[in-house]
Amino acid sequence: MEGLDTGTTAWLLVSAALVMLMTPGLAFFYGGMSRAKSVLNMMLMSFTSIAIVSVLWVLVGHTLAYGEGSGPLAPFIGGLSDAGLSSMIGEVDPEGGYPLLVDAGFQMMFAVITVALISGAIADRAKFGAWLLFVPVWSLLVYFPVAHWVWGGGWVGDITIGGAEVIDFAGGTAVHINAGAAALALTMVLGRRKGFGSESMKPHNLPFVLLGAALLWFGWFGFNAGSAYAADATAALALVNTQVATAAATGAWMLVERIRYGKITALGFASGAIAGLVAITPAAADVTPVGAIGVGVLSGGICAYAISWKFKFKYDDALDVVGIHMVGGIIGSLAIGLLASATANGADGLLYGGSFGLLAVQAVAVIGVALYSFVLTWVIAKLIDLVMGFRIPVHVETNGLDHELHSETAYAFDELDDELEGAEATDLSSPTPPGEEVASR
């Protein structure tokens, strides 16, 4: 294949696989944070996102996000010239040296996890059929346009203030603020869970949470370093920054926990790690490693407080999508305006002698994406609620979504109890005669 760079191609293939692994990791992270009676439902929301968005991306998603638009809609959405991706087969990017299909596959994984992130906010109370409808509609009307705005030649990528352009290296706006704002809108439409604020709704399986956080942390190296589109110095910087920002965020979160509650928790460590990963995503190639530590400290400390805002403002963000992804994405995107360094990638933030323009243009991108995602998601959710209902009945919520919606349970406690009771009854009523015990083994 003429012009093919096998090294770059191999790196993008590996990075795409790493990003794909993040969505099953998210399923474990969210599944462990859920209650035992709804863990399978929560995990299926992530896994079905993989299936639905992957097909939709090939059919129309990639071209709507990255295709060249026409007329007055060009700044807002791409065209349909490459629908189906068939025109990409065998084609190589002339500058990067990688097959165009590798790029399409890599970006597919971003689309998948963005939708899956939203699900954690509505744990325990959404109709599964409504979710299966929400995923493609939200992808078409929200994610694909926003991806076009930021990375596909749309208005966010084109705006400048004082000579500064928007920086979103791997998805602070397009992925995390987008998903977080959508999650907030869904909580408004679906309302609070039964017993929110009065009943204990603690995570049922913290080892699952830690496993999920580990898989996400591992996959995030493909998410961020892979966004360099080459195995080069930029990828190396993104990898190191991702690691140290995440590490710093866990420390900041644990410190806040220790001060507020007197204890350090496994859930807090895992949540701090995700907050750091989210915040460094837009800034991974534009801050120094010391700057990345600063981003991590800010995100870990602020997000540790932000997750409690749901109790103050009475919105039921079940698994802290708003407090971690929206808030963390905002922190990381705005931190670029303060901590970006020309040593890293050519632009200086305010703390390195740069102008106010970079911070201002980052703020415009943050506000634009957040408002669009919130409003469109609210409208989509309201329409789905009118058509088929988005919220499950109270008795389904009480009995658990796994049993009521999927006829399954993650843990066969009832069956085990029945077996034990049956064994005890057999032992009491029909003791094994001497000599038969050995024969029955």
Automatic annotation (TrEMBL):
Family: Belongs to the ammonia transporter channel (TC 1.A.11.2) family.
Coiled-coil stretches: none
Ammonium transporter AmtB-like domain segment(s): 10-411
Key words of the record: Ammonia transport, Membrane, Transmembrane, Transmembrane helix, Transport
Residue span of region Disordered: 421-441
Record keyword Iron present: no
Protein name: Ammonium transporter
Keyword Membrane: yes
